[in-house]
Write a structure and sequence with these properties.
By secondary structure, the chain is an alpha/beta fold. It is built from 9 helices and 6 strands. A 6-stranded mixed sheet has the order 2-6-1-5-3-4. Helix 5 links the parallel strand 3 and strand 4. Helix 2 packs antiparallel against helix 4, helix 3 packs across helix 5 and helix 8 packs antiparallel against helix 9. The longest helix has 18 residues. It is globular, with a radius of gyration of 19 Å.
């Protein structure tokens, strides 16, 4: 909450470094209506990430529409999906059309619970996301919020007893596989219950590649498949905001 004040008062002591971490909303791909790709795509289209990064958090976070940060090692060929370049008006129009095709209306909105672990920032982001989805679809989306303590929240996700859940992933090492392996069909991290033979095959290609360019192309292919299938809603890449005294050198 003090970030902007500190940035104004002591700008030469405020450092913001982009992180190899991604904040996402996972949809339960084994639970209706999220088994319907139209619903998943609509939620991706209608979420205005810039409101969350620039107004809710406002510390230099960057909106993203893919899971793997493209600035990770061998992630340089990963491209943001085409819809990320469209205006919000265009995206909202498409989202409304998809939701209506899937059978939703103002009288029968898409209702779901958004789960997050107890944390003030997660709460702020969830409140904003719920409001943005409702406004941008003209009332076709109605979100209820639910928070759980960490251990309960993890258990709920693992058991698939949720609709949509806040999640995040931080790199264990500076290489794209720390992200791309997450959504393999047999991954224990894959609590979105996403299963795609095409995604698994793209990742298998990466293991057969003989150089960095071949691996990077395979990771980009996997991310493109993930974006097309829309099992998650990527939101933003984290930053590390730090106060560093001017006498600290080499930081």
């Amino acid at each position: 909450d003090l970030f902007q004040k500190l940035k104004a008062e002591i700008p030469n002591e405020v450092f913001v470094v982009r992180n190899l971490s991604t904040y996402i909303y996972e949809m339960n791909n084994e639970k209706a209506p999220f088994t319907d790709i139209r619903v998943r795509k609509a939620l991706n289209l209608a979420l205005d990430r810039s409101i969350i990064t620039d107004k809710v958090l406002n510390q230099g976070q960057t909106p993203t529409y893919v899971f793997t940060p493209p600035y990770i090692h061998e992630g340089d060929k990963i491209a943001q999906p085409a819809y990320s370049k469209e205006s919000m008006a265009q995206r909202n129009e498409q989202a409304i059309k998809l939701l209506e095709e899937a059978g939703f209306s103002k009288a029968n909105p898409l209702k779901f619970t958004l789960l997050y672990n107890t944390n003030e920032n997660h709460k702020k982001v969830a409140i904003a996301a719920a409001s943005i989805w409702k406004a941008n679809t003209k009332g076709l989306v109605d979100v209820q919020l639910e928070n759980q303590e960490w251990k309960t929240y993890l258990d709920t996700r693992r058991q698939g007893k949720y609709d949509v859940a806040r999640a995040g992933w931080s790199a264990d090492y500076n290489q794209a596989t720390t992200f791309t392996n997450y959504f393999l069909s047999n991954s224990s991290n894959n609590t979105a219950k996403y299963k795609s033979a095409a995604y698994d095959a793209a990742m298998a290609e990466s293991y057969k590649a003989t150089d960095a360019a071949g691996r990077a192309a395979a990771y980009a292919k996997a991310e493109a498949i993930l974006a097309e299938d829309a099992p998650i809603v990527p939101v933003y890449n984290y930053v590390n905001p730090r106060l560093v005294k001017t006498y600290v050198k080499g930081y």
